[in-house]
């Protein structure tokens, strides 16, 4: 983990209220599923850093894909080329690498796209299912479709792109055909819980990337506790990627 | 030569006045990957209890203007696991280890203090901002008589330097400080987080899983500064400041108000690398002001 000054190269709206920020910075090597803590301003407000998944990092070029939610991400959206912010990372544990020839599926709901796109671009194989309210909410659709070896489908609640319905409906259909050996998922907790059950029924391994409010992002404050069969674990240290079978979904 | 060292008690001398704070440093392991812990004036551990504690439901932290509210719920590994698994690691660094602890009854506090009276522990810091289960949940740190009795019992259970960490939200902080001193405290930490809450106006629900929590960070610094100043005029024992310190300027201000050392908590969640520049800043300040020792600053606030 390193704290580095990062310079904004570009920061553009790529879907409704969703921005792709490209930064120049010098982080250690990262694996898909890891995240960074971004200090948006050097002044004391906003005080805490914001956790964001690494969409892509290579040769000093860091990509973050974020949805504008509140104070911090609104400030971020106002950043211009040449502005600086501070990036702490890489943090947490990423996705496991599937064995050679293992069939994989990626499921992204809401703001769950970045870590899964990172993984799909890295593995260059498998099926990807992206869910959102509407077509306008799905970021980087063209780029996703260009990932070599990855087949992409969408589910939208209003039917404006792909199938009308929930991402878990598409997963259900897909699982009635060829069953993947591994399902990787990120999105709202109810969706992850459902996918974890679907994976179990299909006999597939399932890894989920969890979101939790964070104080530090590097393991010292215990803010990000998640209940697992092995007791409390910290999303920022033992996660954010967990084996779905170990999560206490109902607590 | 610039001397940044400070003697808190017979058994507790610090090479500089900058300490970590309880609950923002865990047991040192993660921070040891970030910087050499030996540069610190001292390490204050996460608050320990007699048996491990799971803590509160999430969300456990929420940011507010220039600070955060936390309701971790004192999740900790318990004193036995601390002694077996965490203390041996902390002992490797060339800096005092101050163990923070709490209980729910007088007996639990006494028992904790007894167990921590071991080699490798330099001092113990008592968190008294906790509900007393045998008194219907009233906080130990809210009533002078209850506090004095508790501290005097703990005093008998340990030969270690005993630091009492006061609650800020009391009618008369001076009276609480005197009660702790009368009970036999060697030093005071001023002070803990300020009770606080956050509400979501859209859902009409509290944001924290525990409904309420404690406010920390720069938002509370002016309050902590005033508490340190007030307490320092009441007691003869040393004071360790806690509340919002982020920069070397903050450290100097707390020293002027009457503190002998300062804990840095929330600032290190935001900036894990902050300690070395804060320590360096204090040293440079002494040099530039032509002061030979930290003692030239402590309590030197000019009010007339
Ligand atoms: C490991 C991890 C990776 C993430 N990756 C991404 C990503 O790649 N893209 C993306 O758009 N979002 C991501 N999120 C969610 C993102 O961190 C929040 O949307 C963001 O912190 C909101 O900040 P804000 O200031 O705009 O909102 P505010 O509501 O003003 O934030 C107030 C406080 O609450 C925290 N908070 C609010 N919502 C969340 C949330 N859902 N999760 C965690 N903390 C929250 C903030 O960090 C801040 O401390 C990730 C979260 C985690 C834990
Ligand atoms: C996440 C978190 C956990 C804390 N845990 C403890 C604890 O276990 N025991 C304790 O005495 N104080 C605890 N505190 C209080 C701090 O030690 C400190 O007194 C307070 O946060 C004010 O200082 P600061 O503004 O520098 O953080 C905690 C604070 C935070 C933010
Ligand atoms: S956010 Fe502090 S421990 Fe995970």
Which fold does the CATH topology of chain B refer to?
TIM Barrel
Question: Into which percent range does the helicity of residues of chain B fall?
Answer: 25-40%
Question: In terms of structural class, how would the helical and strand content of chain B be classed?
Answer: alpha/beta
Main beta sheet strand tally, sense and closure of chain A: 7 strands, antiparallel
Overall form of chain B:
globular
Radius of gyration of chain A: 17 Å
Order of helices and strands of chain B: EEEHEEEHEHEEEHEHEEEEEHEHEHH
Oligomer: heterodimer
Structural summary, described in words:
The complex is a heterodimer of chains A (251) and B (304). With 251 residues, chain A is of the alpha/beta class. Chain A has five helices and 16 strands. Chain A is 19% helix and 36% strand. A seven-stranded antiparallel sheet of chain A has the order 4-3-7-1-2-6-5. In chain A, strands 11-10-9-8-12-13-16 form a seven-stranded mixed sheet, sandwiched between helices. The radius of gyration of chain A is 17 Å and the shape is globular. Chain B has helices spanning 29-32, 79-90, 106-115, 144-157, 173-183, 221-232, 248-257, 266-270, 274-288; strands at 6-9, 12-14, 18-20, 43-44, 61-64, 67-70, 97-101, 123-127, 131-132, 138-139, 161-165, 187-190, 194-197, 199-200, 205-206, 212-216, 239-242, 261-264. In chain B, the strands form five sheets. In chain B, strands 3-18-17-12-11-8-7-4 form an eight-stranded parallel sheet. In chain B, strands 5-6-16-13 form a four-stranded antiparallel sheet, with no helix packed on it. In chain B, strands 1-2 form a two-stranded antiparallel sheet. In chain B, strand 5 and strand 6 (67-70) form a beta hairpin. Chain B is globular and about 55 Å long. Chain B starts with 5 loop residues before the first strand and ends in a 16-residue tail after the last helix. The mean pLDDT of chain B is 96. Bound molecules: flavin-adenine dinucleotide, flavin mononucleotide and FE2/S2 (inorganic) cluster. Flavin mononucleotide binds at residues 21-24, 46-47, 70, 72, 74, 100, 127, 165, 192-193, 216-217, 220, 242-245, 264-266 of chain B.
